[in-house]
# Entry
Amino acid sequence: MRPRRRERPCPTARRQEAPDPVQLWKLPSGRRLAFRLHVTALNTVIRQLDQTELDTVFRKVSGSTRDSGGRSTTFDFRRPDRIAGSQLQAIRVLHESFVRNLGPSLSAYLRSYLSVKLVGVEQLAYGEFVEAIAAPTFMISLSMSPYDGSALIELSSSLIFPIIEIMLGGKRHKCGNPKREATKSEQNLLETLFRIILNDLRNAWRTVTPIDFKFQTVATEPQTPRILAPNEAVVSVSVEIGIGEISGHLNLAIPSIIIEMIGRKFDQQWGLRNTASTEAGQQRAAALVSNSEVRMDARLPGPNLGVRDMLKLRVGDSMQLDRRLDQLLDCDMNGTAKFLGRADNSNQKKALLIESMPECV
# Structure
């Protein structure tokens, strides 16, 4: 007689009969949801959390959420922050080199001393850059081969006509009507000036990556060149140019997306670079400005004179000046005091005998 085989229960049926591992159920009104835990083994254990334990769990969860999140920061979609601060600093260092070379180059070309200073480098929306430009102006859109996209360079109206006058052989002074647009022939003269500017700009960028800046279109209204959408980010570089008492700005806008393409090259080339000028650079600057002209004035300042007394002046009247006979005269170079000296004669002409050099003034 064969022994009877013990029948095992069907695994499928056992899974169907087993209770769910975790069941969600509701406590009486006024209390939170709780969990009932069923453990299927030799015995079934039912665990019910009371209100105190639930409050402890929720406090731990909310505290860990705050700690893991860190501090929240505000994001303005109209001014997207795409460029890191270290890259902006590298761009500033690059254009400081550009400005150091631009001053001697423009001074040699115009045969007149120009002061050039980097004012600022910042990131902003293209629409904000355009709105800050006063019309009429002189703007050129630039291609940036081998990168796709265009940059924008602008010269403020306060510098356009004084520079044109110097290029035509005139004297620098403030023009009476700087609000008109430049004519076609005047634009051609300015394009020659911008070729010198772009040459120094290419040389400055070559230390990071070769970029060939070339003319595309010329405009006199800020809204005309539509190289980007108004909300697209650009890196704005502002350079102040001074010609005697006249000053204005040269503004450059480069799309931030192109700066992103260049990426790590800024950190590699400019992160630890020393910005001090080299001896060769100083010699080059001295050679470029050696043929420039400066204006020298020997001044004998007098007292303040009332309008009533001025109207009474006649030929032969003697005016007393607020300066002693043994006191030295001021000698100005382009409006800046540089030397002290005495009045003298030289070849039957008035002259100034310099008695104090700049170190002693």
About this structure: The first strand starts at residue 22 and ends at 26. The radius of gyration is 38 Å. The chain has three domains: 19-58, 85-289, 296-360. The chain is about 35% helix and 25% strand.
